[in-house]
Automatic annotation (TrEMBL):
Enzyme Commission (EC) number: 4.2.1.44
Keyword Zinc among record annotations: no
Keywords: Cobalt, Lyase, Manganese
UniProt superkingdom: Bacteria
Similarity comment: Belongs to the IolE/MocC family.
This protein's pathway: Polyol metabolism; myo-inositol degradation into acetyl-CoA; acetyl-CoA from myo-inositol: step 2/7
GO biological processes: inositol catabolic process
UniProt source species: Paenibacillus donghaensis
Catalytic activity of the protein: scyllo-inosose = 3D-3,5/4-trihydroxycyclohexane-1,2-dione + H2O
Protein name according to UniProt: Inosose dehydratase
GO molecular function list: manganese ion binding; myo-inosose-2 dehydratase activity
Required cofactor(s): glutathione; Co(2+); Mn(2+)
Pfam family, one: AP_endonuc_2
Lineage: Bacteria, Bacillati, Bacillota, Bacilli, Bacillales
Length: 298
């Protein structure tokens, strides 16, 4: 289905310890997390807040388990702070990832985002960018994309629930306002389904610009409850809105087929944040790994 060596499989540490809610998985250690990733059969990981920041220490711990760093999240504030502030933090993040051997940098604009607010209803409170904010975002991302390119790296933009780039239309707007050579796209199946969008629409519209993939599924009955009870993004995560691919309602067969048809090259990152006390991270990592093998042969 996919060309040999075209796709590598990673898993995000957020199922073991949640950076957005550190009380989820507080007792899970860095070593347990990466050992279980390797045990479940993954080749890579993104970076969590328990990971050592010293590239030497991190390299050694990962190498012992046959893992590499795929990428890591960066919060941009291009719509609400001067460009230079975001650019300085971005360069430090870029240099760390470059030393770790990663070649993509995940960026999400957090200006007026409600994703980290425990009590703001997700479906009522998301920001809608003004023309001025769109212009600042597009221009700023272009600048960050050029900084990434200085190191031969690629900026991949993460559309996300509760932010100004959540819907199919907002993703299309961002792609239109930015240059393909500067800003690529991260495809996150779970965020699109959660937003009520058809993930295939985004794939079909932007495939040549998709350079990183987050695979997560949704539990539709929980998403319905999030809407009905006006829960926030963090409450939704705690309630189990997300799960691993194959365990929810997203039609991954079509997603994989579309990506393969266009010879996708890069990482697939399983990223399914849920409460580790309710969903054993190793059990779900093994479940995800098996599902990907059975659906794609990878
Ligand atoms: O890529 C991601 C990083 C997380 O911190 C975020 O909240 C999650 O939903 C996600 O998709
Ligand atoms: Co994601």
């Amino acid at each position: 289905m996919f060309k040999e060596h075209a796709v590598k499989l990673a898993i995000a540490p957020i199922a073991w310890t949640n950076d957005d809610m550190p009380e989820l998985g507080r007792d899970n250690t860095f070593e347990q997390c990466i050992s279980e990733m390797a045990l479940a059969g993954f080749q890579g990981s993104e970076v969590g807040n328990k990971y050592p920041r010293s590239p030497d220490r991190l390299h050694r711990a990962l190498e012992l388990r046959g893992l590499e760093i795929a990428s890591a999240w960066f919060s941009a504030y291009l719509t609400v702070r001067p460009y230079e502030v975001t650019a300085e933090a971005f360069c430090a993040h870029r240099d760390f990832l470059h030393e770790m051997g990663a070649n993509v940098i995940v960026v999400s604009e957090q200006g007026r985002s409600i994703q980290g607010q425990m009590d703001t209803p997700l479906f009522a409170g998301k920001p809608v960018f003004t023309e001025t904010e769109w212009a600042a975002l597009a221009e700023g991302l272009g600048g960050l994309g050029r900084l990434a390119a200085e190191k031969g790296m690629t900026l991949v933009y993460h559309h996300h629930m509760g932010t100004g780039v959540q819907t199919v239309a907002e993703i299309a707007r961002l792609m239109e306002l930015t240059e393909p050579g500067e800003v690529s796209l991260l495809f996150d199946s779970g965020h699109l389904a959660f937003a009520g969008e058809n993930p295939l629409e985004v794939l079909r519209a932007h495939l040549p610009r998709i350079k990183h993939v987050h695979l997560k599924d949704i539990r539709p009955e929980v998403v319905e409850r999030v809407m009905r009870d006006q829960l926030s993004f963090l409450q939704a995560v705690k309630a189990g809105a997300f799960t691993v691919p194959g365990d929810g309602c997203i039609a991954f067969a079509e997603i994989f087929a579309e990506l393969a048809r266009h010879s996708y090259t890069g990482w697939f990152v399983v990223e399914a944040e849920q409460d580790p006390a309710l969903a054993d991270p190793l059990e779900y990592a093994i479940k995800a790994r098996r599902y990907i093998r059975e659906s794609t042969g990878l």
